[in-house]
Amino acid sequence: xxxxxxxxxxxxxxxxxxxxxxxxxxxxxxxxxxxxxxxxxxxxxxxxxxxxxxxxxxxxxxxxxxxxxxxxxxxxxxxxxxxxx
Length: 85
Known about the structure:
85 residues; mainly alpha; two-stranded antiparallel sheet; 2 strands
């Protein structure tokens, strides 16, 4: 938690490094930050595959605006597939 806001820190290499490069810059309470696009969050979660990651994928697919073409491209390039939900 950062000021009561949930955050997750990831080591940047390969997929996560690409996600950082393509992250959206924001400002939160005067602090500059970058936020991963949902397509990268989904792909990273698919690469890990824990139950909580599968739940995150399901939530993002249901509630976030997803660029399906981008998601498919990222999954293809990293040789990943979405789990059956």
